[in-house]
Design goal:
The chain has four helices and five strands; from the N terminus they run αβαααββββ. It is of the alpha+beta class. It has one domain: Hotdog Thioesterase (Thiol Ester Dehydrase, Chain A, Roll).
């Protein structure tokens, strides 16, 4: 985490358009089983993947990590991050043993002030595509990065 200095408003705004490396991800049966089990649910039919996989599959498949996303926004600490929203769109169900192509970029980034609170709001968009290129899922994640020294 960057604790040396607070990024400028221009530095935060310049993140819009930043693209993660992207890549691919295959959800195997064991992974789907464990994820489904932890929700208390039953496996879906025909190798369909439980939607809970959208918490981590897009991030890993885009060849990034939560730690890298924290660093990109120059988080002051792990506890300075707030979750504004996770929006999942699933035009198609994900399935086990299919290799999905994943792309990701920063779609919004700005500095906000609400009363005495100052924070940076950064939105990440991850797209999960089937082998033929059709969109299977889109995950839009919006986090706030608290700024204690502004």
């Amino acid at each position: 985490m960057n604790t040396a200095r607070v990024p400028t408003e221009a530095e935060i705004e310049s993140l819009v358009g930043y693209e993660f490396p992207g890549g691919e991800y295959t959800i195997e049966h064991w992974e789907n089983f464990l994820l489904t089990e932890c929700t208390g649910g039953e496996l879906l039919p025909d190798g369909m993947v439980h939607p809970i996989a959208l918490f981590h599959v897009p991030i890993l498949g885009a060849n990034t990590s939560i730690a890298e996303m924290f660093a990109l926004g120059q988080a002051e600490s792990d506890s300075s991050i707030g979750i504004e929203s996770y929006v999942w769109e699933m035009p198609k169900m994900l399935h086990e043993d299919i290799t999905y192509q994943i792309t990701a970029q920063v779609t919004e980034a700005d500095r906000r002030r609400e009363g005495k609170r100052t924070f940076d709001r950064i939105q990440f968009c991850f797209e999960v595509a089937e082998p033929g290129g059709d969109l299977a899922a889109r995950c839009t994640i919006t986090w706030t990065y608290g700024r204690s020294t502004l």
